[in-house]
Amino acid sequence: MQKSDFRGVFPAITTKMDANEDVDLQGVRDDVRFQVEAGVHGVIVCGSLGEASSLEEDEKIAIAEAALEESAGRVPILMTVAEDSTRAGVRLINRAERAGVQGLMVLPAMRYPSDPDETMTHFRTVAANTDLPIILYNNPIAYTIDLLPEHFAQLADEPKFLAIKESSADTRRINQIIDLVGDRYELMIGVDDLAFESLVLGCSGWIAGLVVAFPRETVAIYELVMAGRIQEALEIYRWFLPLLSLDIGPKFVQKIKLAEHVARGTSPIVRAPRGPLVGKDYDDARAIIQRGLATRPDLAVYGF
After folding, report:
1. Residue 261 CA neighbour count, 13 Å, CB half
2. Are 241 and 251 in contact (CB under 8 A)?
3. CA-based nearest residue to 197, from 223, 163, 169
4. Is the Cβ–Cβ distance between 167 and 191 less than 8 Å?
5. Percent of the chain scoring above 90 in pLDDT
6. In the chain, what are the domains?
7. Band (4; pLDDT cuts 50, 70, 90)
8. What is the pLDDT of residues 128-155, one digit of tens each?
9. How far apart are CA 223 and CA 226, in angstroms?
10. What sections of the chain are H helices per DSSP?
11. pLDDT class for 111, splitting at 50, 70, 90?
């Protein structure tokens, strides 16, 4: 993959589970096919939305293999690396590379809140142990570890770092990174309800969550912004915003799986310790989803 290959919509797909909370590999294949047919530009497996923290290494490799088999080269398949140690991350990427994934999205090692020097060393160690292109993922809200624009400037000498998933929720970061390093990286927004603003400001990719239930609308917003059709993109985005809010908070996996279930009929089952939505959480999320479906825009009006 080249740097320009990180432009576009990249769904971070959920991991479907059966009634025993075992991974449903046919569900993985179905999800990849659904996304590819809707026009996405790549697929990311085993991310936070994919319940990475509850998956075993063998399961992650099996998921990647199923996604690769279904994609059959139509779009790149990327593996998320969010292990508890640098050593475990390197072991996973070596197996993922042998399986055939085309790229990596790398997080800081989990559990330990590393400082910037430790985090950058982690990223560089991963890069030294693979030939694959890498998206660096910055999400201080979820993981407490924050790399600032000046840190990405320091990392710019590593050619395998091709893109940044910026999820600080501070859109100032986009212009700050561009000011420091120009177009050195493809910038990819990872916060669904800041996607429109971030694309307008200069992000060239959207690593999306609600795309798993609404891929055609997500792709339409992206393509319209890239074409300069800002007002039309904004019309769809404003319809989408209540749904995009489901991507926020500790129960975002359950809420997005519920959106898929209502919109597509897929399994809403999550793996413990996550539990199903109940009470007000369920009622509020389902109301948002049903309202979104009832008012879904006609994409043919926009040429999609």
Report:
1. 18
2. no
3. 169
4. yes
5. 95
6. 3-229 (3.20.20.70)
7. confident
8. 999 999 999 999 888 889 999 999 999 9
9. 5
10. 25-38, 57-71, 86-99, 116-128, 140-143, 149-154, 172-181, 195-201, 215-226, 230-244, 252-264, 279-294
11. confident
User: 179 pLDDT band (50/70/90 cuts)?
Assistant: very high
Q: Collect all residues with Cβ–Cβ distance below 8 Å to 94 and sequence separation of at least 6.
A: 129, 130
Q: Residue 115: its pLDDT value, please?
A: 96
pLDDT in tens, 29-46: 999 999 999 999 999 999
DSSP of 25-80, one letter per residue? HHHHHHHHHHHHHHT-S-EEESSTTTTGGG--HHHHHHHHHHHHHHHTTSS-EEEE
Give the number of other Cβ atoms within 10 Å of residue 1's Cβ: 16
State in Å, rounded, how far the first CA of the chain is from the last one. Answer: 27
**What distance in Å separates the CA atoms of residue 304 and residue 301, rounded to the nearest whole number?**
7
CB 243 within 8 A of CB 214: yes
Spatial separation of the C-alpha atoms in residues 83 and 194, rounded to whole Å: 27
147, 173 contact by CB (below 8 A): no
DSSP conformational letter for 17? B
Give the model's pLDDT for residue 141: 87
Asked if 62 and 68 touch (Cβ cutoff 8 Å), the reply is no
Answer yes or no: are the C-beta atoms of 13 and 42 closer than 8 Å.
no
**Which is nearest to 120 in space by CA: 147, 143, 93?**
147
Name the amino acid, one letter, at 172.
R
What's the DSSP call for residue 246? Answer: G
Note whether 24 and 42 are within 8 A (CB): no
Closest CA to 42 of 208, 191, 158: 208
- Does pTM top 0.90 for this prediction? yes
**Separation CA 77–CA 133 (nearest Å):** 12
| Residues in CB range of 264: below 8 A, 6 or more apart | 34, 213
